[in-house]
Every structure is written in C-alpha cells, then in structure tokens.
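Sequence design from tokenized structure. All designs in this work follow the same two-part layout: the structure record, then the generated sequence. An example of the structure record is given first.
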C-alpha cells in the first residue's frame, strides 16, 4: 500500500506542482494509508521525500521552472536531464533507504523524549506550588494616589 501511494504521488508530480499535490492528492491518499500503517512518522518522511524529489522533476518541477526563468534562455531537455540525474538518483536512494529501514525516522527519538521531561518534584514541592497558585493576588497599587 505504501508503494502504491508513493507511486501515485510520483505520477502526480509529472503533472502537478508540489503544492497542488499537498492540497489535492495527500488528503485523499494518506488517511487510508495511515489506517494500514501504524508509523505515521515514517509515512510523513516518505511523503516529504517524494515531494522533495518532485521539485526536481524535469517536466514541471518548481526548481527547474525557476531555473529556466532566471536563465532566460532555453535549455535542451537532454542537458537538463543529465544535470538533474545525480540529484534524482540521490533522492531515490534516500527514499529507498527510508522505505527499507523505517527505523531511520526514529533516530534520536529517545534522546528527544528524555530532554522534554520536566524535573521531578516531590509531593511536598508540588503541594507548595499549588498553595502558591491559590494565594490571592494583591491588587496593583493605584497609579493616581491624589484622588
């Protein structure tokens, strides 16, 4: 199912821009995939990598169109394809690595989780904090004492 969704995103990248894929294709294909695949982080990384590759799509990739606009001259398609192939192969290799090794998306997860934990408080410290929060707050002093 994951390969089918990635193929759908890849095929839609031939005719749609990445933003259109995000707003049209992703809401249709990702929810059914998330029902079948428990790891939402892995799916999100795969989709983002596929979208990143779509920016370099030789047909209408956003980065390619912007480069053509800035250059203000025509680029032969074979030359364009030769220049993009190393980047597209690197993108495909990374996508394949994450597809085959889902644990790559969870590197550093334990360290991040442990750094978010608040410092441990004793029951007495916690009760003191609650008592402080329940104390009435004194009204601010009157700025015009002469009245």
């Amino acid at each position: 199912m994951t390969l089918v969704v990635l193929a759908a995103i890849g095929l839609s990248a031939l005719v749609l821009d990445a933003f259109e894929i995000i707003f049209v294709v992703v809401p249709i294909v990702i929810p059914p995939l998330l029902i079948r695949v428990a790891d939402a982080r892995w799916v999100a990384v795969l989709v983002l990598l596929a979208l990143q590759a779509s920016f370099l799509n030789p047909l209408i990739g956003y980065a390619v169109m912007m480069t053509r606009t800035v250059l203000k001259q025509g680029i032969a398609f074979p030359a364009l394809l030769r220049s993009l192939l190393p980047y597209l192969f690197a993108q495909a290799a990374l996508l394949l690595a994450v597809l085959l090794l889902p644990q790559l998306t969870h590197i550093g997860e334990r360290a991040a989780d442990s750094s978010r934990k608040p410092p441990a408080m004793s029951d007495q410290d916690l009760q003191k904090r609650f008592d402080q929060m329940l104390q009435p707050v004194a009204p601010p002093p009157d700025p015009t004492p002469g009245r």
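The mean pLDDT is 82. We note this feature because it recurs in several other targets discussed in the main text.
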